[in-house]
């Protein structure tokens, strides 16, 4: 279980923090010492255990530090950049920054990045990266432009993976976000487009990331108060291609969406993250620790003086600005377990909490704080474990996935499924996907509370599945009334039985509008009818458009009288969509589905009459929209066609006419449909007359074959 200990102020000196807070807090060459860079002219070296500064350096008046100072762990020197292009290097013995080493660069620097075991890197604002030594050899060297115009770097992180440096930085352009991953062992730079998913209008407030042997787990805190995760492969399948990554929801409503002073998050270890922000709109700012493995809040601490929305974590200390002073909050954590996450872990004598390392880097020889003492017994244990691991055969990812789905939590299964899908496809890919879905569905039946809908959505989107391969999938979705999953199945599966199609139609027509608002369905087939330029004209129209024929020629006097008497509000009702847009999207999926009329009609008779009437009103509305243009088509991406609309009108009337005709509320709809059919008959009748005339013209043309090069003929049609 995680715990936040008593906070303390690092220094009573009020730091020069601007509107955006400090520039940064960075680790020094000693674990207990940190470099703090304010937003003005000063860098201070603090020793946390003594709560006092060890040294302070400032640039001259008129100069300003533009990126946080870092430590070069190889030389134990400090590096800082002021005025965007001027780089300074000094050590503890130096007093005046004006007299230390200086290099003026040819491009503006975004950040200097430094970690143990490698030389520092310099990331320029235009996306280029240079090693410090190569840059100092020629400070005025030309720096290339990597990112596009108006693209701005928002965040960056430096890792060591397989003993090689890996740099990731995030950029933003016009609300779109991109991730760049630089592998320095192969000099490969890969660009990814980050898709925001459901809430495409949200703004990402903060980033953090962790890394394992295959993926970079990029976590982002958005303006909607939710935390999302994006898995970025360390070894891209096609480095030259701009690839797309979709983020998934990790934690919901962690902070309020309208936090006053901004929010921040940072990864503490593989299972825990710290979040800075207000949990509710009117509440004070808090520092909270969440267990992302078990989706639980571990602990929180209120910060009544407010913060700058900045958070740093090193070793076992969290740094933040509380009010105007830099505050340190020690952090302790036990090994992640379900009992600990729920606060029910029993302790014998001493709680025995110990500090978990931020991230374990298995490639470094130091062991990265695994917690073993330097004893002969510990070394023997390590050697024995290493031998045991080396003798174990490597388990294929497909078998790992199949074993995971039988016992792990929904969140962990979702992560493993995303990892598997991100790998290069193997010959048994289709089989593994089918077995995975089958295993998930069997567990759903055995455990009613288990329903990994996000995993099922990901697997359906592989375009590998069909209804015959996993018939239980739609059955469970119907029981759960999961309209998003049903819509996706209707779009992807070509072999859905007519009985299942009708069962989906029942759900789509009966579910309440309030429930639909909370669902995430695909809206690509729905056009925003409220913006139609013909709405005003349609409101004035009291008759059905008859393909160019005047409605005054209609001899159905009774129908004319009925329609001419209808009040103004009913006229508006006939020209507005009778269902909400999300229900329209679901019904469009039904219209696109394949069916056999013989097998479909018996099942349509089981649908309640009021739902049939609603569906007919929607189909009639679509017909009116088709009639607005000469092409008789609907706008938008993949909308229903006129043939689909007319076929379903006929199917519904054939199956339910005797029931619908007895409903008073369906009377006007049936009259409108009658006039629709009558107008079509009138059109076809006139076309038949014209066809006879054209046949006669064709005969005349065949008889007059000895024309000259040019002639004028006058033909009279009676």
From TrEMBL:
Keywords: Activator, Nucleus, rRNA processing, Transcription, Transcription regulation. Its main location: nucleus. GO terms for biological process: maturation of SSU-rRNA; positive regulation of transcription of nucleolar large rRNA by RNA polymerase I. It holds the Pfam family Nol11_C. The lineage of its organism: Eukaryota, Metazoa, Chordata, Craniata, Vertebrata. Residues 1-332 form the Nucleolar protein 11 N-terminal domain. It comes from Macaca mulatta. Residues 552-573 have a biased composition (Basic and acidic residues). The gene is NOL11. This is Nucleolar protein 11. Residues 399-718 form the Nucleolar protein 11 C-terminal domain. It is found in: Nucleus, Nucleolus.
């Amino acid at each position: 279980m995680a715990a936040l200990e008593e906070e303390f102020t690092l220094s009573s000196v009020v730091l020069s923090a601007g509107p955006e807070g400090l520039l940064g807090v960075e680790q020094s060459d000693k674990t207990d010492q940190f470099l703090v860079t304010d937003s003005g002219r000063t860098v201070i070296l603090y020793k946390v255990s003594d709560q006092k500064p060890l040294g302070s350096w400032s640039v001259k008046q008129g100069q300003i530090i533009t990126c946080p100072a870092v430590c070069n762990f190889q030389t134990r020197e400090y590096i800082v950049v002021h005025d965007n292009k001027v780089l300074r290097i000094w050590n503890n013995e130096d007093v005046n920054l004006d007299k230390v080493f200086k290099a003026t660069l040819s491009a503006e620097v975004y950040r200097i990045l430094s970690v143990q075991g490698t030389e520092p890197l310099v990331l320029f604002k235009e996306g280029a990266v240079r090693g410090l030594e190569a840059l100092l050899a020629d400070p005025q060297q030309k720096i290339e432009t990597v990112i596009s115009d108006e693209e701005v770097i928002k965040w960056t992180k430096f890792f060591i993976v397989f003993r090689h440096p890996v740099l990731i930085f995030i950029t933003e352009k016009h609300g779109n976000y991109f991730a760049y991953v630089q592998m320095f062992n192969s000099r490969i730079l890969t660009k990814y487009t980050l898709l925001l998913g459901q809430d495409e209008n949200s703004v990402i407030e903060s980033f953090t990331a962790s890394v394992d042997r295959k993926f970079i787990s990029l976590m982002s805190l958005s303006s909607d108060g939710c935390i999302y995760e994006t898995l970025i492969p360390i070894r891209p399948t096609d480095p030259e291609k701009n690839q797309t990554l979709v983020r998934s929801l990790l934690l919901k409503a962690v902070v309020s969406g309208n936090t006053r002073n901004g929010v921040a998050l940072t990864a503490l270890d593989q299972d825990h993250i710290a979040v800075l922000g207000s949990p509710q709109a009117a509440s004070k700012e808090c520092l909270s620790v969440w267990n992302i493995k078990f989706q639980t809040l571990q602990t929180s601490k209120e910060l009544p003086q407010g913060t700058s929305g900045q958070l740093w974590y090193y070793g076992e200390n969290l740094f933040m600005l509380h009010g105007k002073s830099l505050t340190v909050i020690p952090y302790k954590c036990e090994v992640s377990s379900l009992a600990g996450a729920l606060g029910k872990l029993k302790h014998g004598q001493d709680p025995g909490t110990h500090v978990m390392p931020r991230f374990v880097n298995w490639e470094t020889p130091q062991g990265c704080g695994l917690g073993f003492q330097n004893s002969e017994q510990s070394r023997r244990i390590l050697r024995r474990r290493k031998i045991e691991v080396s003798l174990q055969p490597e388990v294929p990812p497909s078998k790992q996935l199949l074993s995971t789905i039988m016992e792990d939590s929904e969140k962990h299964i979702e992560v493993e499924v995303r990892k598997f899908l991100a790998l290069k496809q193997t010959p048994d890919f289709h089989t593994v996907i089918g077995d995975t879905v089958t295993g998930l569905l069997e567990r759903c039946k055995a455990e009613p509370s288990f329903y990994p809908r996000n995993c099922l959505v990901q697997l359906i989107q592989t375009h590998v599945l069909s209804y015959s391969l996993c018939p239980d999938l739609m059955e469970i979705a119907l029981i759960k009334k999961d309209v998003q999953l049903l819509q996706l199945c209707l779009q992807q599966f070509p072999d859905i039985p007519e009985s299942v199609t009708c069962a989906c139609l029942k759900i789509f027509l009966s579910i309440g509008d309030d429930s639909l608002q909370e669902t995430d369905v695909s809206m690509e087939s729905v056009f925003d009818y409220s913006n139609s330029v013909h709405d005003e004209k349609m409101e004035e129209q009291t008759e059905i458009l008859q393909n160019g024929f005047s409605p005054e020629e209609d001899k159905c006097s009774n129908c004319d009288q009925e329609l001419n008497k209808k009040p103004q509000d009913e006229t508006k009702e006939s020209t507005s969509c009778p269902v909400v847009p999300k229900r329209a999207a679901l019904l469009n999926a039904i219209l696109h589905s394949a069916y056999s009329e013989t097998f479909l009609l018996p099942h349509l008779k089981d649908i309640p009459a009021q739902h049939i009437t609603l569906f007919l009103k929607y189909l009639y509305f679509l017909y009116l929209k088709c009639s607005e243009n000469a092409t008789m088509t609907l706008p938008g991406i993949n909308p229903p066609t006129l043939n689909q609309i007319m076929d379903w009108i006929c199917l519904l009337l054939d199956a339910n006419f005797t029931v619908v005709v007895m409903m008073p509320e369906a009377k006007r709809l049936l009259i409108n449909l009658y006039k629709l059919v009558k107008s079509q008959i009138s059109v076809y009748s006139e076309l038949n007359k014209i066809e006879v005339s054209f046949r006669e013209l064709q005969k005349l043309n065949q008889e007059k074959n000895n024309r000259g090069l040019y002639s004028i003929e006058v033909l009279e049609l009676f």
